[in-house]
Amino acid sequence: MLIRFAIAAAALVAAPMALADDETVGDIDRGADAYDASCVECHARPGRFMQGIEGDDEERAAWLDEFLVEHYAEDDQDRADIIAYLLDL
Length: 89
Description:
Shape: globular
Number of domains: 1
Helix content: over 70%
Oligomer: single chain
Strand content: under 5%
Radius of gyration: 18 Å
Number of helices: 5
């Protein structure tokens, strides 16, 4: 009984921390700067790039997040900023 209580208590304490890590908020201005510094050389027309990504903003953000992880944007905050910028176009 005590072990179940300890496990449940640990899960309740850890859950908000896990959710906080997943909630990285992107900044459009930082995203524009990051895009200009790192992406524009190969992807000069971001609006055209975004036209090829289907779905609503949530689906497009998920696709972009997967793409950017494999495409030189390993930092969570950088990805969130670039995604915020691209979705704002």
